Amino acid sequence: MRAPLRKELNVPSASFTTIELLESHFDPNWHFHPHYQLFTVLEGTGTRFVGDDIRHFEAGDTVFLGPNIPHLWRSDRAYFEGNPELKTHGIVVYFTEDFLGEGFFDKPEMHVLKQLLDKGLRGLDIVGAARRMVQNSLKKLAVSQGFEAVLALLSTLHQLSHTSEVEYITGVGYVNTYKVSETERMQRVYEYVMKHFKEEIRLQEVSALANMTEAAFCRYFKSRANKTFSDFVSEIRIAYACKLLVQEKYSVTQICYESGFNTVSNFNRQFKNLTGKSPLQYQKVYMQRGE
C-alpha cells in the first residue's frame, strides 16, 4: 500500500464521470481527490483502506465517499501474479459538489441531498437493499449519457439520502493529514507491512525505512493514520483473517497463525476488539447473511 497520492479527474466534456473498471487488479495506489464518489465492487477480493478504516472486501462492497478521503481497494496478492482466471470488476462515479452549478445543493429543495453529502465526509458503507439499489443504478449509469445520466445520478443520490442502510466508515473527527511530499516515506512503510504482515514486524526496521527514530516514527504515524502503528498492523492482519474465515477452509487456529498472530488467545482478543465478535461468531453471521 502506498501513501495517498492526490488523484486528478478532469473530464471537460462531462459534468461528472462514470468509469467501469475491468482490470487484473484494482488501482494499487492509495490516493485521494476533491471529488465525491460512489463505488461498487462487482468482482474481486482484497483489503480495503478508507481513511483510518481497514477491512476485507469482496464482491458487493459498495461505498459513498466525500472529497479528499484517502482510499484504496488493494487486491489480494494473487491478483498481481498473472493468473488469467482472476480479474477485478467495479463501477465508480466521480462528481464535485458544484457539478450542476455553484450552490445547487444549497437550495431548499436539496436539503436532504446536502445532508447526504455532509455524511459522505466520513465515508459511508452502503448495506442491505440500499446496496443492491446503488449497484443496479451504477450499472445503468455505466451505459447512460447526457441528461439521462444526470437524472439517473440524482435519482440514485435521492434514494440514498432517504435510507438508513448506511454506516459511517471513518472515525469521528477523522481528517486527512497526508501530504504529497510524504509519499516516498510512507510508501516504503506501507509496502513493507503489506508484504510482511504474516511475519514478525520489528519497529526498529520499519522506523529505519522512514529514516526516523522509533519514538519519532510512532508519533508521526499516529498523527497521520489516526491510530498507532501497532493497531495498523493488527487491523491488516484481522482483515486478512476475515477473508480466510469466510472461505471456511481453515480452523481458527490455522487462521490465527496464517494471519501473523503468535497466540490464539491474542488473536481472539484482538479480533473481538476490532469486529465486536469472536472469529466463529463472525463466520456464522457471514454465512447467515448469504443464505
Automatic annotation (TrEMBL):
The keyword Transcription regulation applies. It comes from the Bacteria. The keyword DNA-binding applies. GO terms for molecular function: DNA-binding transcription factor activity; sequence-specific DNA binding. Signal peptide: none annotated. Transmembrane segments: none annotated. InterPro entries: Cupin_2 (IPR013096), Homeodomain-like_sf (IPR009057), HTH_AraC (IPR018060), HTH_AraC-typ_CS (IPR018062), RmlC-like_jellyroll (IPR014710), RmlC_Cupin_sf (IPR011051). Residues 187-285 form the HTH araC/xylS-type domain. Keywords: DNA-binding, Transcription, Transcription regulation. SUPFAM superfamilies: Homeodomain-like, RmlC-like cupins. This is Transcriptional regulator with cupin sensor, AraC family. It comes from Runella slithyformis (strain ATCC 29530 / DSM 19594 / LMG 11500 / NCIMB 11436 / LSU 4).
